[in-house]
């Protein structure tokens, strides 16, 4: 604060003209205030306190010390706001606004002056982070002291994980970038046969080729402020847990998508045209047979909840529901029920024929850009996966469209 501005405030507060002695005293005081306000941070506070302690009380209980301390707080607030993300253009704009309103600001120091405000907007690039004001919304003022603050947190529900049970999967310390294996590409030329003495034996020829599976990374990031950890510690911990679950869900979804694309569609079996009233239970049985005729023994079925509900019931010719015992439900296959597979589609497969390797869920914390000076940080979460889908074993799985398979199974009534 400049000495001249301080003197204008003093003269505005005076009820009559100042005497030469008063002018000299307040001028000296203005010099001291100006010098104190040129300091920064802690040194300014020390100077303000020293000056305030030397001043006496004014009328109506107000003290010059209080006025000066109030001015110091305003300066601190303005400096804090101006230093956080203000560009040179923003600062120039702010100075122009203050200069245009200098008369209003000066006159506001009088006791009878009306309230005033200055509107100023600084544009700052948006940051994709969670702050204490956006992390938890819906807060309202509650004056009733009879309040129970329930510390449980309710989350949006997502489908359960299935990878570790529905397919052959294991965790490794380092997921290989590439997996290679030898795969038979034909059934061979010639077959062994019974031969007589002195007769040429049949020639048997096998052919193989290399197949490859490549590592995939599923990852995401969240950005937070350090105030989040301070103000809402438990919620921040839960957010990290949710973030881990969400990354893992994306990994699960990626594997399921790959398996769905890998499984061949149902073509036909001996059950076609043999069932008077086909149901989802019948469709699962047809998918199981589809794998069995290709010399596999399926043990897994993946289906939507709506289809799973229908699969445990049968209907007789009169439409009466017949409950299937638990031991016989889903055709004896282990069911995995998830909304991630579309209603009307079923996967039946042999879990041992698919192999997946994955690493630990990795979490890293760091800063980029101006996050360090803005008390912000970024958390990166990722998981690596390598999924082996052998072409030679493709018919160990079967993808069934319920409506189409029901139509194939239906027996025409004569």
Structure characterization notes:
The protein contains 13 helices and 12 strands. It is α+β, with helices and mostly antiparallel strands and 414 residues long. It folds into 2 domains: 3-84, no CATH class; 164-409, Major capsid protein gp5 fold. The strands form 3 sheets. Strands 1, 2, 3, 9, 10 and 11 form a 6-stranded mixed β-sheet that branches. Strands 7-4-8-12 form a 4-stranded mixed β-sheet. α1 crosses α2, α11 (280-292) packs across α12 (305-311) and α11 packs across α13. The longest helix has 30 residues, at 233-262. The radius of gyration is 39 Å and the shape is elongated. It starts with a helix and ends in a 5-residue tail after the last helix.
